[in-house]
Write a sequence for this structure.
């Protein structure tokens, strides 16, 4: 990475970090399910810029941390609205990472997982046809049968036994498939449910040094009480702060 990433607080405090150093700071647990939330927010709490996209409030350094968090994940989990807005690129891995993943018993790249009740998705996007693994779409019994039939030709479809898939439904699907390292990239409604149901293990939050307006701030329903997490480290580059938080009993 060309922008310097420096650890301000944590195990590597005072050090400038390489690409591999950053990935090591976001090492996954050896066993069990682990769910990370990854997001960027501005100083006024916006999750996107005036164009409605997170990329416009990000930076090269923030994206380097974003890539490190994803690098050895099993699944990248998003809601349908996030897919429609952000136009995800095909999920692939660098050759060296693919080999390391295979050696660890993982698929060669993370699998994109989309939660959609309506199945109203941009099926023509390259992410469906050109990813290393066919994306998984999780829906519920309320989905239109014709949409279900079409979706089965475009993705690896999972229909859970409830009207709309819950966070618990999604986690159960992924665990059954052996995808236990999960990065949740939003949107706010999906993230809120993971927090509310106690299924979120870690939050990796980048603070963008700007103001984007409250029209782009998350507005989902939060938990009934504050869900406190423990600060593990703080990195900085380009006036951004990249903070890692984990639950207190982890």
């Amino acid at each position: 990475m060309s922008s310097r990433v420096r650890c301000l607080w944590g195990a590597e405090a005072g050090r400038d970090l390489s690409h591999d150093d950053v990935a090591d700071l976001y090492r996954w647990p050896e066993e069990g399910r682990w769910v990370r939330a990854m997001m960027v927010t501005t100083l006024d709490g916006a999750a996107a810029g005036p164009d409605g996209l997170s990329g416009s409030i990000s930076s090269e350094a923030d994206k380097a941390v974003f890539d490190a968090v994803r690098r050895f994940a099993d699944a990248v989990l998003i809601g349908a609205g996030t897919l429609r807005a952000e136009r995800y690129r095909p999920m692939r891995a660098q050759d060296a990472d693919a080999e390391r993943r295979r050696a660890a018993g993982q698929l060669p790249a993370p699998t994109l997982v989309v939660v959609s009740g309506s199945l109203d998705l941009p099926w023509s996007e390259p992410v469906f046809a050109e990813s290393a693994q066919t994306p998984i779409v999780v829906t519920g019994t309320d989905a239109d049968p014709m949409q279900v039939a079409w979706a089965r030709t475009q993705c690896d479809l999972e229909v859970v036994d409830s009207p709309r898939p819950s966070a618990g439904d999604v986690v159960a699907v992924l665990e059954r498939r052996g995808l236990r390292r999960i990065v949740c990239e939003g949107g706010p409604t999906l993230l809120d449910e993971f927090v509310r149901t106690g299924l979120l293990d870690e939050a990796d939050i980048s603070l963008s040094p700007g103001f984007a307006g409250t029209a782009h701030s998350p507005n989902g329903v939060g938990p009934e009480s504050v869900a406190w997490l423990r600060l593990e480290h703080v990195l900085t580059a380009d006036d951004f702060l990249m903070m890692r938080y984990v639950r207190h009993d982890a």
Remarks:
- The radius of gyration is 18 Å.
